[in-house]
Amino acid sequence: MNTIVVAITGASGAVYGLRLVEELLAAGRNVALLASASGLAVLRHETGLDWTGSAGERREKMRAHFGTASLEHYDQDDFFAPVASGSSAPQGVVIAPCSMGTAGRIAAGLSNTLIERVADVALKERRPLILVPRETPFNTLHLENLLRLSRAGAQILPAMPAFYHRPQSVEALVDFVVGKILDTLGIDHALFQRWGEGGK
C-alpha cells in the first residue's frame, strides 16, 4: 500500500505531526492521518484546531486544513481500515508525537486501537516504524520500552532539534525534526541546512 500513516498521540508537540503531513502531501505522498482521543485534545490545546466529531467530520476538517481531498482518516476503533491489515500494510508509519503510554502499549504487543494495530503491522511486515517521543526526562520504563521497540525494528527519533544551523524561529526547530523524519523515510526535502553545507 503506497500510503504513509502519520499518527498524533497525547504527548506535547502536535505541530510535528501537522508539519510532517504538510511535507508528505507536498511531496506527492498518500497520507492517512490518525489521532488518538488524547492526541486530539492536545492538538486543540496547542494549536486551536478542533477536530472533534465523527470520523467523517474529522476527515473533512483535516482535508480543509491541509487543502486536499486526498488525505485519509480513520477512527481509532476502525479495524476494517486498510492500514490495519498486513495484506495492505502502509509504506511507513510515523507516530509524531509519540506518548510514552503509546510506546509502552506498542512495546507490549497490544493492539487495542488502530494506531497500536498499525504500528504492530509495520513491525511484523518489516515496514518503517518511526516513533517521535516528546517526553523529558525519561524514566527507566520509558527507556526500556524504547529499547525494546528499537530491537523490534522501530526507529526511535526523539524530538531533539539541532542548533548548529542557528535556527531563528520555533518553526525552524520543528522543521529540523520533521526533516530528520523525512530523511529516515528516504524523502528529499530542504527543511534545514545540513552540517558542512553553506560554510561556517
Automatic annotation (TrEMBL):
Entry GO MF terms: carboxy-lyase activity; flavin prenyltransferase activity
Enzyme class: transferase
Gene3D superfamilies linked: Flavin prenyltransferase-like (3.40.50.1950)
Superkingdom in the source lineage: Bacteria
Catalytic activity: dimethylallyl phosphate + FMNH2 = prenylated FMNH2 + phosphate
Record EC number: 2.5.1.129
Binding positions for dimethylallyl phosphate per the UniProt entry: 164, 180
Pfam families: Flavoprotein
Position of the signal peptide: none
Residues the record lists as binding FMN: 10-12, 36, 99-102, 134
Keywords, sorted A to Z: Flavoprotein, FMN, Prenyltransferase, Transferase
Flavoprotein domain boundaries: 3-185
Record-linked NCBIfam families: PRK06029.1, ubiX_pad
Annotated function: Flavin prenyltransferase that catalyzes the synthesis of the prenylated FMN cofactor (prenyl-FMN) for 4-hydroxy-3-polyprenylbenzoic acid decarboxylase UbiD. The prenyltransferase is metal-independent and links a dimethylallyl moiety from dimethylallyl monophosphate (DMAP) to the flavin N5 and C6 atoms of FMN.
Family statement: Belongs to the UbiX/PAD1 family.
Protein name: Flavin prenyltransferase UbiX
Organism, as annotated: Desulfuromonas soudanensis
Gene: ubiX
